[in-house]
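> example.struct
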């Protein structure tokens, strides 16, 4: 790679964060400037000792007293920051070239937005940022002249395939979906799904929230919305196809009907690395396809009846405005309630639809209005559960 790139990881203790550190471990030319985590303080300390970053952020203000006693330096010059302000500080530090947004959920929006605002290249794993505030974020990126590079494997695949043609030649994108653990489960069985069953994803090892989203297919709904903002697409330019092997990560169909696919074993280190090294490609830790074995690639249309979340994704793409913030918050609150066994699996999406249908639509929401919509939708889910 040409110049050394300094990276700030928002959410280094999560599934994406750990994969990102492994990429840095294996590549010349990348340096960790800052890391952050919320609750896994012991892991955060280990990461700090290994990578010797300039800053470590303990993102939970409530832990500040316990944390100030932890030695994050490992003998080096690491400085500890605490809470929201610390996240903003590392996302906007002048020394940083790339910010990896790998916090889960709405909690990742503020720091990702700060990074875009001050012109940092944003490697975006936190899809919720674009679901909630796609309009604002993409406008800010244009103003600050920065690039948002997708880390989500589907969007990385689309981004890579797009480079074989021009924007005006794109007819549609095809998002692949594994179908999750209940791809072939009968509809009647879904109401009784347990937390443990829903967390057991067949092809990907991920954080809890995205694992549940994959089981309801709300993850694909969020990715439909994410694709709209990343690539400037309308609802009729986005299609979803079930592909259980998770080898084709997504496809782009051009006006001449040529479809370009990106293929690699399911491993997030590849899309993370590409967001770090773009526009270059270098050798890294991701595994290779083994063409001495037989692969089968299956594709089939999704079942909107068993997975009604998918319809919500297309509806939100069409409506825009505050509907992204509402669907995202309703889903976060509903997933939380499901994980605490306060809500059944199928009620996650039912509750999200009800909340979306009852909200006070705002066509051009400000950041404050998005925050208010987020709060309102979470309260609605609580009321829905209590009713
Ligand atoms: P995770 O739960 O494993 O990790 C989340 C990280 O965010 C942790 O470092 C945690 O400490 C931090 N965090 C959580 N809540 C926080 C808060 N309130 N304030 C500050 N920090 C907080 O999640 P993950 O699976 O790594 O996913 C991260 C993001 O990447 C999500 O938006 C997810 O949709 C997206 N993503 C993940 C994968 C994957 O393979 N895991 C793939 C594509 C996209
Ligand atoms: Mg994905």
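> example.seq
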């Amino acid at each position: 790679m040409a110049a050394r790139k300094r990276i700030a990881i928002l959410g280094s203790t999560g599934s994406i964060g750990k994969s990102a550190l492994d990429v840095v471990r294996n590549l010349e030319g990348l340096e960790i400037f800052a890391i952050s985590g919320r609750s896994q303080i012991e892991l955060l300390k280990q990461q700090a000792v290994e990578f010797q970053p300039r800053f470590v952020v303990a993102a939970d203000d409530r832990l500040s007293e316990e944390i100030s006693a932890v030695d994050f330096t490992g003998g080096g010059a690491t400085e500890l920051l605490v809470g929201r302000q610390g996240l903003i500080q590392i996302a906007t530090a002048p020394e940083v070239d790339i910010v990896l947004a790998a916090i889960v959920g709405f909690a990742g929006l503020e720091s990702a937005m700060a990074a875009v605002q001050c012109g940092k290249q944003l490697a975006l794993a936190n899809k919720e940022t674009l679901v909630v505030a796609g309009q604002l974020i993409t406008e800010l990126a244009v103003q600050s002249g920065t690039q948002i590079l997708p880390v989500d494997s589907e969007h990385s695949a689309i981004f890579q395939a797009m480079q074989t043609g021009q924007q005006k030649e794109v007819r549609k994108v095809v998002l692949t979906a594994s179908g999750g653990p209940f791809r072939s489960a009968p509809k009647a069985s879904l109401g009784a799904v347990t937390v443990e069953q829903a967390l057991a994803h067949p092809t990907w090892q991920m954080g809890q929230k995205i694992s549940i989203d994959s089981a309801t297919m709300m993850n694909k709904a969020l990715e439909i919305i994410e694709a709209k903002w990343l690539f400037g697409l309308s609802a009729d330019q986005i299609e979803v196809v079930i592909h259980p092997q998770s080898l084709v990560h997504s496809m782009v169909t051009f006006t001449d009907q040529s479809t370009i696919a990106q293929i690699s074993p399911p491993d997030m280190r590849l899309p993370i690395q590409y967001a770090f090294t773009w526009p270059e490609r270098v050798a890294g830790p991701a595994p290779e396809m083994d063409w001495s074995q037989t692969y089968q690639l299956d594709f089939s249309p999704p079942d909107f009846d068993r997975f009604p979340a998918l319809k919500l994704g297309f509806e939100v793409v069409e409506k825009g405005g505050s509907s992204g913030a509402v669907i995202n918050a309703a889903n976060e609150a509903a997933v939380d309630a499901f994980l605490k066994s306060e809500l059944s699996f199928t009620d996650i999406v039912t509750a999200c639809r009800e909340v979306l249908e009852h909200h006070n639509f705002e066509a051009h929401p400000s950041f404050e209005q998005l925050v208010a919509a987020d709060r309102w939708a979470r309260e609605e889910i609580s009321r829905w559960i209590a009713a």
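> remarks
Residues 367-386 form the longest helix (20 residues).
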